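FYI - complex with zinc ion, inputs then prediction.
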Amino acid sequence: MSAHTCGRTSSSWKLLPVLSWEEEEELKAYESGRIAPPLSPFFAAVITDKKQISTLSKSLSMKYPFSAELRHVKRVRARASHLAILLRPVSPEDQVNLLNGNIDLYRQKDDGPKEAADFTPEMNFQVTEIVQGCGSDLRGLGEAFIVSVPSRAAKNQKEQQVWGSIWPCTYHAKPKTITMEEDVHGAARAEQEKLRIGRNMRVALEAAQLNQSRGQKGVGAVVVDQESGKVMAIGTDQTGVSGGPLLHACMVAIDLIAQKQGGGAYDGLPRILEGIRERVDEESENGVKPIEDEREKRKRLKDDAPYLCTGYEVYVTHEPCVMCAMALLHSRVSCVYYGCSSPGGALGTYYRLHCSPRLNHKFLVYRGVLEDECRPLLCGDEI
Ligand SMILES: [Zn+2]
């Protein structure tokens, strides 16, 4: 593969988060409307004077700041027909009073989350009864009503879409998941991330192709330091080598990292990184530091050197098997990106080890990176 094709900006592939079985089921239930997301009731009011939005937001935020759990909730909702603002949460005392008045706070469940509790005009709430002590700061407010808002932040982009149909919420992807999780402000960042991820996967792909051209299986794995963006190791499947039944690409890559840190179990592993250094140097913003430098750095930072792959991402052309997935887990990787699914794969297809509650380390997994390019390299007996 030539250098210029490696840097291309093709975006035909999609980055897909691999969630736990439970999260996926939950998400399907939210999307289909079978169950409502977790909700908290709030008093809200229509904004009749748009000019007052800023003042109203400020004074309500001062008097009724959202608790830490509700920081994802936006104060104001804009719809084509009206603007509305959250006044304050419905307290347990309010709930008792409302129940005494035969008002069912959760009646919106009957309407499905998309129609969640808009107006409840029969209640005739007075804003001044709900919000006390704000005085003239409450100018511009109209009819009050009760609305339910998502009581926890969305955990992923798909959930965020469901949440947003109920009440506007901010979505802060975890630092390691900024990747493709687009939000209003994040489209450009997401596109940049996609390029970066694609670029790293192309290194794995190239290694896999090189390996295949040498008569070995076409599987490649690349370890990247998330912070610096540097390629730290490249492994390819070496199971064809005599005495190497365990030498899947991920195992090789992890062992190369261990060797750089003074450990490792296998001698004579191919140093693919050296072989394609020119390409990697060209595409990596910072280039790749010579291995010797890294060794020196580790020596200097001996006391606070990372434990194996802590803070590292792994790019692998095919979904890892159980052995590799456990090795990645024990190495404390932060994120794994893979191209195409493998039969019996342990990070999505057959198992989802990365989110098992019974294991002591969890990491993020995304599939689908350059999937069409990775799939033809499968030879059918990968496990
Ligand atoms: Zn494996």
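Residues 233 and 309 are 11 Å apart (CA to CA). Strands lie at 16-17, 39-47, 76-78, 83-89, 141-150, 220-225, 231-236, 312-318, 335-340, 364-367.
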